[in-house]
Amino acid sequence: MKVITCQILFIIISTIGYGQVNCYIFPEGSGERQACELCDKAIKYPQGSKESQQLFDEAIAIGPKFAWAYYEKSVPYFKRGFLLEGLDILNEAIRLKPLEYLCYRAYWYWQYRNYKLCIQDLETYYNLPKAYIQFTPGGEKDMRIILGLAYARTGNYSKGIETISECLNTYDSENDFGFADYHSLGILYVKSKQYDKAIEVLKKQLLINEDIADSYYYLGLAYKGKQNKEEAKRQFEKAILKLNDIGRYYNANAGFRVYLSDVIEAVNTLQK
Question: In total, how many domains does the chain have?
Fold first, then answer.
């Protein structure tokens, strides 16, 4: 599966996957057309407002086969922490159009750390005959990378490395890489103690984006694993500087979060 630049893909995916639906594709007077028009009104109100939710309810009553209404109604529940309530609604959208909404449910399973269900949804999705590239709602990560990280979170580092590597190999050039794609792969190489590969990948990451504090931390761990304490300390010190920089890049959906205390502890263990 080949891709074009990430910036263009983000626009395409947000439009295809979760964007506003063109109501004119439905016959005039049909339930779907009326439901779509009600949803167009609903999204003009603040997300999760009483007015918008009531309009989505009306849309669902008029056009019960219009999947977008269920999706839009579910979104504020997820964002406010009501996972079960959101799933009750979103599941109907998935039943109607799994190709469009399975990845969105997988994303929220990922957010709530239910990695097994995240994997189940994404494996199902990528086995669909017309599956296309989808990104996290913020557009920062290919969902195939999320799948690889989910495998890793269940302890299957080899499957995670395979999945992320296959994803990155579909990119035509360095311009197609996200701001933290190599970082995701580098983490798993460190976790699986493949330190030479970790160093190679994380150095590539820093050429793309040198503002991820976590990358320096994991690079330090890789050097530490190779008994290069001097270089490990140098990388840990860079990580500390970045973590103290309020303007640093925030690595969303990293999968393995790094705290300042983790880096300080790593530095202290070098001195023992």
Answer: 2
